[in-house]
Amino acid sequence: MNLMDFGALLGSAPEEVLSNRQLKSLGKWTRHRQSIGLPESRCHSKEAGVELRFARGIGLELVFLHSEGHEKFSQFRGELIGGVTFATDRKALRKKLGKPTASREQIEDSILGIMGAWDGYLINGLAIQFIYSPVTGSIEHVIIEKPGTRVW
């Protein structure tokens, strides 16, 4: 399963997504049920390096693909896009994918601490955000969503 395969699942109900053969083959999934009053639920596979967020009335809203060790996940083993890997830094990503649609430099938040820079691209009907590690400068995780959902 590669990054673009997740695009076809966006908007689908949790049961439909979690019964997807390709997704099931990635590893064991843990589902976190929606708490009363919260508009979202999540599920993840730490071993596959994938986290999914579902929103009430929307279905699958966001897909997070993690690098090795990010939030205690194993690295997502599928293909990202255009020869990009988690070892790719910002300069190399921009050389491969061109100028981003949106971007932000690294910032320090008083509550969250240092937050890495990111670049966002609209590619084949998907909004794809590459977040860089503030330590190494390489890609730390990737967020996939439909444009107009929450985009940057």
Q: Sum up the overall morphology in one term.
A: globular
Helical proportion, percent range: 10-25%
Largest sheet: 8 strands, antiparallel
Query: What separation lies between the terminal Cα atoms?
Result: 25 Å
Say how many strands there are: 10
Question: Any low-confidence stretches, pLDDT <50, length ≥5?
Answer: none
Beta content: 25-35%
Radius of gyration: 15 Å
Helix/strand-derived class?
mainly beta
Please tell me the total number of domains.
Answer: 1
Q: Reading side by side through the largest sheet, how are the strands ordered?
A: 1-2-3-4-10-9-8-5
One letter per element, helices H and strands E, the order comes to HHEEEEHEEEEEE
Average residue-wise pLDDT: 91
Oligomer description: single chain
Q: Specify the number of helices.
A: 3
